[in-house]
Amino acid sequence: AKKSGRGEVRFFNDAMNAAAKDALVIDGALRSAIAGQEFRLVYQAITSAASGALTKVEALLRWHSASLGNVAPDRFIPVAEDSGMIVEIGTWVLNEACRQLGVWKAGALGELTVSINVSAWQLADPAFVGLVQQALERNSLAPRQLELELTERVLIDNGGEVQSVLAQLRGMGVGISLDDFGTGYSSLSYLTQFHLNTLKIDRAFVMNIEHSERSNNLVHAIIAMGQSLGLQLVAEGVETAGQASILRQLGCHHLQGYHISLPIPADELPAFACRLKSA
Ligand code: C2E
Ligand code: CA
Ligand code: CA
Ligand code: CA
Predict the structure, then answer these.
(1) Of 56, 109, 161, 188, whose CB count within 10 A is highest?
(2) Which ligand 1 atom is nearest residue 180's CA?
(3) What is the Å distance from ligand 1's center to 60 Cα?
(4) For the EAL domain, which residue ranges apply (predicted)?
């Protein structure tokens, strides 16, 4: 028993070491990622449930590391958050998404809203509101064209100060969206306490609405509650026509997911929007 006990401890340590080494390697490679121009953004369409028109896009970060190849966000974002590097990376995302929005504005797409993911560290940075303002002004964008996606975690971690930062941003006209709603630390008090205007219903609930009455009821309840609070609702992870049709019936405003589009490079968006219109 003693021997197998030691074996388990050893195995556990090896697994921990491997995870720590992985994080260390990623951390090292991330340090030169911005300067090396290894990041790019892809954009996933968010459409009106009623009309099918393109209403927004979510910017999602992609990293092709010179030493590691493609690394998924779920692997490198947590590492960047641990080191605080996410602030610099997040600023790059903000500036790049706004630059791209300025390019689209000049073209056939017209006025579009782009949604970006913002981490707790960024909101806690006293420079954040100023950075947002600069990015909008530099690219001649209306504040309503930018939406910031926050997770419930962000609201918990930062508490009181976040309330005033969000109030300032909402005051400017920037949209604030609560991402992955219902997965983590949901407290209904957030919905009224913070200045939000959009709720994104997590894929975990959307996934089962066709076959599980419980999921269906839950999504129905989230939509009803969001509507009564005057919030816009976006369903994430919509993968089938059946899911889209149920969500439409339940009164969900916007749809996002592989059924509508994968995340695509910026230069493919105009053609995608054209195809949507003629569909
Ligand atoms: P998220 O914000 O919840 O983004 C949605 C994720 O679901 C994306 O994964 C997207 O590609 C994927 N997705 C979209 N539609 C579907 C679908 O129909 N089915 C399935 N199975 N998946 C779908 P991605 O791009 O790998 O990003 C993962 C997470 O990484 C994001 O989750 C977000 O939390 C984080 N992330 C991505 N970009 C950024 C960024 O610029 N800044 C920060 N702080 N986090 C980011
Ligand atoms: Ca998001
Ligand atoms: Ca999400
Ligand atoms: Ca997520």
Answers:
(1) 56
(2) 3
(3) 6
(4) 23-277
Whole-model pTM?
0.93
Which amino acid appears at position 243 of this protein? Q
Q: What is the DSSP letter of 226?
A: H
Ligand 1 contact, 61 CB (< 6 A):
yes
Looking at the predicted structure, is the pLDDT value of residue 196 above 50?
yes
Question: Strand, coil or helix: what is 113?
Answer: strand
Of the ligands numbered here, which is closest to the C-alpha atom of 56? 2
Confidence category of residue 92, pLDDT binned at 50, 70, 90: very high
- The pLDDT score that the predictor gives to residue 159 is 65
Residues with CB under 5 A from ligand 4 (ion): 180
Question: Is this complex's ipTM strictly greater than 0.90?
Answer: yes
Q: Return the residue whose CA atom lies nearest to atom 35 of ligand 1.
A: 73
Q: Which residues share a beta bridge with 70?
A: 64
Q: Is the CB of 120 under 6 A from ligand 1?
A: no
Transcribe 114-131 into DSSP letters: EEEE--HHHHHSTTHHHH
CA atoms of 141 and 136, how far apart (whole Å): 5
Question: 100: which 2 tokens?
Answer: 């791209």
* Region 225-250 average pLDDT: 96
State the pLDDT at residue 106.
77
Task: Express each pLDDT in 202-236 by its tens digit.
Answer: 999 999 999 999 999 999 999 999 999 999 999 99
Angle value at C-alpha 213, between 207 and 218, nearest 5 degrees: 70
Q: Which residues contact 38 (CB under 8 A, 6 or more apart)?
A: 32, 63, 64, 65, 66
